[in-house]
Amino acid sequence: MAVGYFSRMRVDGVPLALRPAFHAYGYGLGAALESVIATIRHTCRIERRRAGPRVGPRIDCFWHEHLPAYIASYLPPAPGEHHIWMNHPIWYMRAVHVLLAWNGVSKLALGSSGHDGQAALAEVVGYLRAGRSTAVAVDGPAGPPHVLRRGALDMALESGLPLVAIRFTYGRVVRAPSWDRKCFPLPFSRVAVSESAPLHVTRENYEEQRLALSRLL
């Protein structure tokens, strides 16, 4: 019973009695994650290449395994650019939410598949229409890895913003023992980042762009 309760408890629904421990966990682990991101950002040679001029606002897309490299390479956002992210709302994600806030993500929409995902997606679309950008790990939050979910495509369709596929390759990397085998580039190694040309999604080309996005990633 307790296990089932905690598996459903949201970050915005933690009981008052648990909040001190909850926030200690969130900020403590968040600080540890921030030190990892800072190490990647300041010691690795990050080389970015675009297929054409930068566009923005936009929807960045990458596989979940590349989340650390994405944060180190793209956050905080450029001056004048504001990010809203859709993120898993269960309590253990608090440390990631803290990390994103410290790295310039100014708004989180709490939701994912099976956890008010449609409401969160609608919230993100509203902000995208107002000129914000977002980033989506398109096989998350629980996989299977490298299987494209439709959330980013639906955001693009409803907001009119383009998708940009982002690929990462590493000189030296270690992988976490998680479902996505998350990649952590080693200090003083090379991180090559490749951006696709923008993909514009319409109702008529939805399937074509879905296949193109998966191929580009």
Number of domains: 1
Strand content: 15-25%
The succession of helices and strands, N to C, reads: HHEEHEHEHEHEEEEH
Strand order of the largest sheet: 1-9-6-2-5
Q: Distance between termini? A: 40 Å
Structural class: alpha/beta
Q: Which value, in Å, is the CA radius of gyration?
A: 17 Å
Uncertain regions: pLDDT < 50 for 5+ in a row? Answer: none
Number of helices: 7
Give the tally of β-strands.
Answer: 9
Which descriptor suits the 3D outline? globular
Q: How can the largest sheet be summarized? A: 5 strands, mixed
Mean pLDDT: 92
Q: Report the helical percentage.
A: 25-40%
Task: Pick out its properties.
alpha/beta; 5-stranded mixed beta sheet; 21% strand; 9 strands; 217 residues
Short description:
This protein has helices spanning 2-8, 19-43, 67-74, 94-102, 117-129, 151-159, 206-216; strands at 45-50, 59-62, 83-87, 105-110, 134-137, 163-170, 173-175, 183-185, 190-195.
Describe this structure in words.
Helices cover 38% and strands 21% of the residues. A hairpin with a 7-residue loop joins strand 7 (173-175) and strand 8 (183-185). The mean pLDDT is 92. Strands 1-9-6-2-5 form a 5-stranded mixed β-sheet, sandwiched between helices. Strands 3-4 form a two-stranded parallel sheet. A two-stranded antiparallel ribbon has the order 7-8. It has 217 residues and is α/β, with parallel strands linked by helices. The protein has one domain.
